[in-house]
Write a structure and sequence with these properties.
This protein is of the alpha/beta class. The chain has two domains: 7-140, Rossmann fold (3-Layer(aba) Sandwich), CATH 3.40.50; 148-202, Orthogonal Bundle (Arc Repressor Mutant, subunit A), CATH 1.10.10.10. Helices cover 52% and strands 15% of the residues. It is built from ten helices and six strands, in the order βαβαβαβαβαβααααα. A six-stranded parallel sheet has the order 2-1-3-4-5-6, sandwiched between helices. It is elongated, with a radius of gyration of 18 Å.
Length: 206
Amino acid sequence: MTAPPPIRILLADDEHLIREALAQMLDLQGDLHVVAQAATGPEAVAAAVHHAVDVAVLDLQMPGLDGIGVAEELATALPGCGSVIVTGHGRPGHLKRALSAGVRGFLPKTTSAATLARVVRTVHEGGRYVDPDLATEAIAAGDSPLTPREADVLELAADGAPVDEIAARASLSPGTVRNYLSSAVTKLGAANRHDACAIARRTGWI
């Protein structure tokens, strides 16, 4: 009997060393083959479509378009492709947004290569996998009033960074950062942005 062709994978992460290491580990699996890599969201969409990949493994935070945005575009441009988000920022709001976008796998970056390989197979077969700890946190935290972008900016502000620095790190204008921070403070009923950060962290929203 002829063995089925390997599962064709796209890896998208703006951290080159992490992406290359992950590609090498996945390629050690006989039934998996990384056929494309990308460092930005738009590159990920183009590469996935060009190579007609089976599964896209996406970093949540990438330049140009985040992993969830990539998954949303691929749902239309490449309906047969399953999307898996791997992130160091597994907030409840991100998980809920990802599931709403049709993402079928959601994992922290601390996941082992063996677990990721198993999840890729599960997603390719039409199944779903959400890291149990992230799922528990999402349920416990309830629905966050913050948008994902407000949560991102608030997290960047948590260490007391000035607005200009936050703007540079988030690729936003200072005015937009101030608007996000003001909105977050209002939604959380906080006295200031530092109080808002504390509230959001206590509830697991950042």
